[in-house]
Each structure stands twice: as C-alpha cells, then as structure tokens.
Amino acid sequence: MKYETKVLTTKYQKPDAYGALSMPVYLTAAFEFPSAKAMNDAFCGRSMDPSYARIANPTTTYLEERVRQITGAVSVTALNTGMAAIAYALTAVSGAGLNIVASKHLFGNSVSLLRDTLGTLGVEVRFADFTHLKEVEALIDDKTTALFFEVITNPQLFVADIKALSEIAHAKGVPLIADTTVVPFSAFRAVDFGVDIEVVSSTKYISGGGTGLGGLLIDYGKFDWSQSPSPALQGRTKRVGKKLAFTARVKTELVTNLGALMTPQVAYMETLGLDTLDIRFHRQAETTLWLAKQCQALPEIKRVNYTGLEENPFYELSKAQFGPLPGAVFTIDLASKEAAWAFIDRLQIIRRATNLFDRKSLAIHPASTIFGLFTPEQCAEMSVPDTTIRLSIGLEDGEDLLEDIKQSLK
Ligand SMILES: *Cc1c(COP(=O)(O)O)cnc(C)c1O
Q1: Where does the pLDDT of residue 318 fall: very low under 50, low under 70, confident under 90, or very high at 90 and above?
Q2: N or C: which end of the chain has fewer CB within 10 A?
Q3: Is any atom of ligand 1 closer than 6 Å to the C-beta of 83?
Q4: What whole-number distance in Å separates Cα of residue 180 and Cα of residue 281?
Q5: What CATH homologous superfamily does 278-409 map to?
Q6: What is the CATH number of domain 3-265?
Q7: Do domains 3-265 and 278-409 have the same CATH topology?
C-alpha cells in the first residue's frame, strides 16, 4: 500500500465498543482490571493493556501505531512537544562522561538543551558543521554516543549528505539521530538514508494547522546498541537484545520517569492531521517553490533561499534526498535589518508569528526573535544574519501571497 492509503487504514488496537469510525479520545488517568492477575500482567509488561495514562493511553498508542506502520519503524513514542522527543532521544543514548557530536546549525532550544541542560548533567557536546564530513568525523571518539543534526537546518537551510554521515557514524559504531521536522515522512524516508533514530516536532506539519504541540521519537531498530559506550544501553542490550535496547530504555524508563507522554486530546488531533498530511504538504510546498521563483524576480529582494531552486548550492543533494519539493519554508534577504522589520510590519495576509507549516502563512525575523538572545557574533557563527526573513507558506492562494509580499516591499 502507498502512504496515502496506509495512513487511512490502520486499525485500532481493539475494536471500539460502538464501532466509532473516528478514534475515541480516552480521557482517563487509570484503567480498571477484571482480576489481580490481569493487573499484575499489565503492570509488569506481560500484557499490552494500559496500566496508567502516564505510561500509555489508547488514543496515543493509536497515533504511535499509525506512524509506526507508515514509516516502517519498530517503535514510535509520542510526546508532548518536539523538544521532549529530542530530550528523550539524547538522554536515552548519553550519560555523564560521554559525548554527543552535534551540528552547530540547530534549532535554538536544541542548542541550549545540549549545552546547558545535558551539559550540567556531565554530557559533553561537540559542535561541528555537518556539511563538512571531515570535521564531523574528527570529533568522534570512543566516548561518542550519537551524531545529532537537522536534515534541512532552520533558518539557514543547509543540507548535509545524510547517507555519507550515516556511513561515517556506523563505521565508528555510533548511531545517527536526525531531526526531520522540516520534511514530513510522507515525502522523506529517513531510514533509507541510514538514520537510526528520527525525531520530529509534530507541532508543525503533522498537527495540521498549529492546533497543539507534540513530538515523535521514531526508532527504526537497525542500530546495534551493544556498540554504545553507555552503561545503561549495555545493560539493556543484555536483557532485550542488541536492536531493542534504545526503545526499551525509552518506553520502560524515560516515559515513566520523565512523564511527557502525549495527551490523548493532542494525539486525537494529530491523527486527524496525519489523514491530510501528504495533500497539505504537497499543496504548501508547491506554492513555496512557485513563490520562491517569483521572489527571485523582485529587485528589493537581495537573496532568495530555498533548496528547491536550481541556483541553490544544495539543490542536487536536496533533490536526491527530499525530492523536488523540499519543505514549505524559504527565506528572503533584504538590504538591511530596518528593511526586514518594515517589510514584516506591512504584511496584510502573511501573519507575524513563529511556527512552521501552519495552514496560514507566517513570517518571522529570526535574528531578533528565535536567536534574539544570542550576541551578534554568535548569530554570525550560526549563519543567522539580521537581513533574513523566514516565510512559512500555508494553504492560501499563491497569487494572493505574492501580492502581499510585493505590497510589503514597497
Ligand atoms: C519547532 C522545532 C522543534 C521543537 O518543537 P516543539 O514542538 O516546539 O517543542 C525542534 N526542531 C525543529 C527543527 C523545530 O522546527
């Protein structure tokens, strides 16, 4: 079955008592059992029945199962935010005295998670430019627990060679963890490029319109965790086997102890989002490519950055990995910061807001907002100039959006 069919045909774990065609939302903290033995089995992992909603609830399990079937993963964990999914992934692999080699072009909160939060717990982070493979390779040693990067960086829109990165990682016995938020899994199969663990902010494309926050942690079950320097994963390997150690740590330790499992309300909305993900993505990405091309002809715009444009330095690599429509976000550069702010102030249709892949088009000035607390030197090091405006393109008519851009430039 193709993606579009598969996503609409995933069965519930158990038939609904009323045959509801839409997944019921199980708003309950606890579950009742017919006997002490059944309780014992559920609490000790010998049955699949949920014991308590911090650990599993049927609506969230259904979303996880749908994502598992369409991605071909061995396990999916749905969490309350994209940051929770990233925090779980990096916590599951690392530990005090070990290190993570990460891209220096990351979502701002991922940088501070690594540097500040995991840093104070004794995890060392080594930042590299992931478009320079030698730089990445040189930082890996026998205490390296993972490589972590974004498939298209935001807002720079840099693209790394994912297959080559995975070969470097696997040759050294290290898993590759990718944040794939910018290209949905209906368009990009991370596992085909050697990604071991995929993290996604489902707040973006999957929620289907910025209706709530969510994150997905996807394990393809390919990596041999007996190679990891983490004592926790070594221990798990002995109990559950080499391929399931990561998932076992996430599902039986982190979900229980860190407590950020996706709520059933959000899981319900995200299953609705999944239904229409592919069609929304195509429409939004087609408008993005068309608009980016139109913007190239406007003299006030000094630079248009979208990896789907043939002039883009990452065009070939982007096309080989993500196809002809690499996401629904592009950036433009104007002559100065003042020009960028004035442009944003004059927008009539495109909203002044952060977030990506809402159904509405959104504009933001990254240097003064998402990166507003970094120094100008740090922004320069991360390639975030103050002349850049990021545009996330929604479902509006493309001509209307172009008119809005033109009138705002005047
Ligand atoms: C938004 C975003 C996140 C964080 O996701 P939340 O759901 O807001 O926690 C992480 N990575 C990328 C690339 C993002 O765009």
Answers
A1: very high
A2: C
A3: yes
A4: 14
A5: Aspartate Aminotransferase, domain 1 (3.90.1150.10)
A6: 3.40.640.10
A7: no
